[in-house]
């Protein structure tokens, strides 16, 4: 059997190996595993002013004509930071792990890349009661099994010594029924994450649809004043060019990583700023009276990155 060309991205000079930052000379792979509609029968969330928990779908210029607004927002960000020609973009709408053909395509394109950003824009099964299970087409898998499936890819060996970032937006639809949750219920849950080197995980369970709630500001009398969310979204990086609101986690990542104060810093150093920005947006959002005593959780993060990861080629 004829072998393909060698993967030169796996060859490191002594200087690159000893560098305190990851090599970012070759292409960057961005992968999006998506589910646009949650499992189970339709449910009504009108008590909190929401007609549907489905993802916001917008036009896209790639091979996939329509995508989750989070995909389009992140793709625009990566294109501006790395250059569109330097990206290997793969979008899997309504993805199933049984689709071997799609996974083979991923394997082939992964070779030669210097960094890997895996995005999971989906839903959290049953609010994470049993385990943090992410919903995919036809199944739901615990988070640790999802990581194992990535590690079983044929191309995973070529990802050694390279950064692998997992950005997980798994909507917990129980947050759309805040009256069934009491203050006594803990908001911090445990889930298994990879202990391998060069991994990073950022995960949020705040439903995307809550991002469209209006922002508030305070008067001199400290009374909240509501103003349209499209105005505040411009200030926080929330609004997509199609007028749709992306998730709070995506807002925060893009907002911080494009802020002149932080954009040249490495991703790990910026994670406190990203999590803080989500909290700031939550505190400035008018979710309604039903959320008055409801503790909306901030995203969680974990990292075994061994070097600095910058959003630029170097």
Tell me what the structure shows.
The protein is of the alpha/beta class and 314 residues long. The protein has one domain (25-303): Rossmann fold, CATH 3.40.50. The chain is built from 7 helices and 12 strands. The chain has helices at residues 14-18, 69-82, 100-110, 143-151, 229-236, 248-258, 267-283; strands at residues 27-34, 57-59, 66-68, 87-92, 113-123, 133-136, 139-142, 164-171, 199-204, 215-218, 224-227, 300-303. The strands form 4 sheets. Strands 4-1-5-8-9-12 form a 6-stranded mixed β-sheet, sandwiched between helices. It has a two-stranded antiparallel sheet with strand order 2-3. The longest helix is centred in the C-terminal third of the chain and has 17 residues, at 267-283. The chain starts with 13 loop residues before the first helix and ends in an 11-residue tail after the last strand.
Number of domains: 1
Tally the beta strands: 12
- Indicate the percent of residues in helices: 10-25%
Separation, N- and C-terminal Cα atoms: 36 Å
With strands numbered from the N-terminus, the spatial order across the biggest sheet is 4-1-5-8-9-12
Residue runs with pLDDT of under 50 for 5 or more positions: 181-188, 218-237
- Give the overall shape, derived from the CA principal axes: globular
The amount of beta strand, in percent, is 15-25%
Continuous helix count: 7
